[in-house]
Design a protein that fits this description.
Length: 298
């Protein structure tokens, strides 16, 4: 068996393993499908065993493929960590940060601005995505740190809570509840809600709280952007719940925000990292900065 393996072969193999399809993997890698197929075939020839079971529309890992996934990830992580250490030693820095869309536009601007004042030589590269995708990227070493909302189910990742944030009711200015001095969850249980789609954890936060209070929101519209939720509320499509940080930055006079009386719905914002990856001094500094910011929210 030939032992010479090339790094691009490992990257190609992992891309196919994650995509479960040669066409999708080739698109993600920016290479042609024949090029990708030849690389995988060469790798299998070197190992003298197949890594994938080929099916009409998908591929699945063989037993050897399952073992090789872990080894390939470890090898590439070691190479990347080594390069990061060398970059760190050269006194230049980069932090790859993943953030969910219901946090990024409201929380990040001031956080990044304040961090840049202290660390002007560090580049923070932001990737906005859903919780599930960011957890995968964090596990695979594609992001150094992710800012998400609990609850999070993830193996082998380090989760640290930063602060708890209230979820507030948002209504159009002409809504009857605007005139009430106090609003309870029971006041809205029969009303129509505009919600984020199910890919966003904020919807889970709201639904979980309502279930505990034995209330089931009536969802009439779903969207992928929190700003769209706010605009649909303004247009009288329904009411909704949004994070307090979204209220703070909202300058519109076409909607009204109220806190619930009694037990208030909340979400917990946390940072997630892979403890098995090398932590540059820049990443350590950014995590400390987030902890300091989090204390201001408590």
């Amino acid at each position: 068996m030939q032992q010479e393996l090339e790094f691009h072969q490992l990257k190609y193999f992992l891309a196919v393993a994650r995509a479960g399809n040669f066409t999708r993997a080739a698109e993600e890698l920016g290479v042609s499908q024949p090029t990708l197929s030849r690389s995988i075939q060469k790798l299998e020839a070197q190992l003298e065993q197949p890594l994938f079971e080929r099916k009409p529309r998908e591929v699945t890992l063989t037993d050897l493929g399952e073992v090789f996934v872990n080894r390939a990830e470890q090898i590439l992580a070691l190479v990347e960590d080594t390069l990061t250490e060398l970059t760190d030693a050269a006194e230049s820095g980069r932090v790859r940060l993943g953030v969910i869309p219901t946090i990024a536009p409201f929380f990040l601007p001031s956080v990044l601005q304040d961090f840049a004042k202290k660390h002007s030589d560090v580049s923070v590269v932001v990737q906005e995505d859903t919780t599930d995708n960011l957890l995968k990227r964090c596990s695979h070493g594609e992001v150094d740190l992710a800012i998400l909302a609990l609850p999070i189910t993830a193996r082998y990742l380090e989760i640290e809570s930063l602060f708890e944030e209230e979820l507030v009711l948002v209504m159009p200015t002409n809504h009857p509840l605007v005139k009430k001095k106090t609003i309870s969850l029971k006041d809205v249980k029969a009303l129509s809600f505009v919600m984020l789609d199910e890919a966003h954890c904020l919807s889970d936060n709201i639904a979980s709280f309502c279930r505990r209070q034995q209330v089931q929101p009536v969802s009439i519209e779903r969207t992928s952007q929190l700003a769209t939720v706010q605009e649909l509320v303004s247009l009288d499509h329904g009411i909704s719940m949004v994070p307090k940080m979204a209220q703070v930055l909202d300058q519109s006079k076409r909607r009204v925000y109220r806190s619930f009386s009694g037990q208030k719905p909340t979400r917990t914002v946390a940072m997630v990292a892979n403890p098995y990856r090398y932590e540059s001094k820049w990443l350590i500094a950014f995590k400390e900065h987030l902890r300091a910011v989090g204390k201001k929210f408590q």
